[in-house]
């Protein structure tokens, strides 16, 4: 089962992978011209197909789904390239009755979105993705309440995508039930996918599809989500640093991920909003956070791009000079990584003063991860597309 490692280690974790892939799949569907402008559409399709195939392959039995490949302790006890890692890599799967609504919901959402992306490109593959998505969503017990941080958001996103792909009205009712089950969160990440779900549903509504709860979703966007992130005055703990990063103050790890994910949500909103002024505001918000990541604060937080870009991301394979080299000395080496992870977004400033140290040992600030780049990449494609779509004032 070949696919992307989660971050700077060599674990394969299905939940953050699925949520990353659904954001990236959405971005290719909504902003294909952004990818074309960057010469990246076909590479994106190739990469997403690989990831979607992996997520399908994780469905190893009718009621068993792979959640993790690798042992956390063993993996974190090794510093070197993946080719030289000689350890047992156990496979952990969730089975019937396990509290896995979050994982199965995220996987179902991702595969449903993928089925639309490949509908005209590879019909058999698309049909297989959709059939698997429906099965995962309908797994016995998946809609029960579990003692996880949050799961209804993933089920809501799955129902939203299944409504979009199949047109079956019962998915719209299900999405509304999931929305009301826990109370929505304004954060956007692998543990909170309400805003992406709302975007899918409101975009359908804007196209004339009957969507139960559409007015409720729209009110939440205007009265809660937008003002929380636009004002950044401490409501929901969302604040703005002196140089412009908007992030939740409770977080000290991977803060650029949150701003990038919200930037993508804002770009999607701008794409279907019928209010040109709102669309421009959302575009401006997205661009402001991308500008911060790319250097408006005085330095870039994207490896290999812009002024004073990070040289020491917390990434095992990038930090060792060859396939034979391994050992903790490479973690502590003060020099730059011998291999440049061009385009990788690091975690960024850990607190509200914009401070950041390019230190490989500091994984809170300097780790890179699949989910860090997902929303950021989608926002880049969105801003490129929207700058051409939206009429000049």
Describe the structure.
It contains 16 helices and five strands. The protein has helices at 14-30, 32-37, 41-57, 72-76, 101-117, 123-137, 152-166, 170-182, 194-206, 214-231, 255-272, 276-296, 316-319, 329-332, 363-366, 370-389; strands at residues 12-13, 64-69, 91-95, 238-240, 246-248. It has a three-stranded antiparallel sheet. A two-stranded antiparallel ribbon has the order 4-5. Helix 6 packs across helix 7 (152-166). The termini are far apart. Keywords: Carbohydrate metabolism, Cellulose degradation, Glycosidase, Hydrolase, Polysaccharide degradation.
Please describe the topology of this protein.
Blueprint: E1 12-13, H1 14-30, H2 32-37, H3 41-57, E2 64-69, H4 72-76, E3 91-95, H5 101-117, H6 123-137, H7 152-166, H8 170-182, H9 194-206, H10 214-231, E4 238-240, E5 246-248, H11 255-272, H12 276-296, H13 316-319, H14 329-332, H15 363-366, H16 370-389
Antiparallel strand pairs: 1-2, 2-3, 4-5
Helix pairs in contact: 1-3, 1-5, 1-16, 3-5, 5-6, 5-7, 6-7, 7-8, 7-9, 9-10, 9-11, 11-12, 11-16, 12-16
């Amino acid at each position: 089962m070949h696919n992307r490692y989660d971050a700077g280690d060599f674990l394969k974790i299905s939940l953050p992978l699925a949520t990353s892939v659904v954001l990236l799949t959405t971005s290719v569907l909504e902003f294909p011209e952004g990818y074309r402008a960057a010469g990246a559409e076909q590479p994106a399709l190739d990469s997403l197909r690989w990831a979607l195939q992996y997520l399908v392959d994780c469905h190893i039995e009718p009621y068993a789904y792979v959640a993790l490949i690798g042992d956390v302790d063993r993996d974190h006890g090794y510093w070197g390239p993946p080719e030289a890692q000689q350890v047992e890599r156990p496979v952990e799967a969730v089975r019937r009755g396990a509290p896995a609504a979050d994982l199965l919901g995220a996987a179902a959402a991702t595969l449903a979105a993928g089925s639309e992306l490949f509908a005209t490109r590879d019909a058999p593959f698309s049909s297989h993705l959709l059939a698997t998505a429906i099965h995962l969503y309908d797994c016995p017990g998946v809609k029960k309440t579990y003692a996880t941080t949050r799961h209804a958001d993933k089920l809501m996103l799955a129902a939203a995508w299944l409504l979009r792909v199949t047109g079956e009205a019962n998915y719209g009712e299900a999405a509304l039930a999931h929305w009301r089950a826990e109370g929505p969160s304004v954060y956007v990440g692998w543990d909170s996918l309400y805003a992406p779900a709302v975007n899918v549903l409101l975009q359908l509504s804007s196209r004339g599809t009957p969507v139960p709860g559409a007015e409720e979703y729209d009110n939440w966007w205007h009265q809660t989500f937008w003002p929380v992130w636009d004002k950044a005055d401490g409501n929901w703990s969302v604040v703005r640093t002196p140089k412009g990063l908007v992030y939740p103050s409770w977080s000290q790890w991977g803060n650029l991920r949150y701003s990038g994910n919200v930037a993508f949500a804002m770009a999607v909103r701008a794409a279907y909003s019928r209010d040109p002024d709102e669309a421009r505001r959302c575009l401006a918000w997205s661009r402001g956070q991308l500008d911060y990541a790319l250097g408006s604060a005085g330095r870039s937080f994207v490896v290999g791009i812009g002024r004073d870009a990070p040289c020491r991301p917390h990434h095992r394979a990038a930090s060792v000079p060859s396939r034979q080299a391994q050992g903790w000395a490479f973690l502590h080496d003060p020099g730059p990584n011998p291999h440049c992870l061009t385009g990788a977004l690091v975690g960024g400033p850990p607190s509200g003063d914009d401070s950041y140290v390019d230190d490989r040992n500091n994984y809170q600030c300097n780790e890179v991860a699949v989910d860090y780049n997902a929303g950021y990449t989608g926002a880049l494609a969105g801003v490129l597309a929207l700058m051409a779509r939206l009429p000049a004032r």
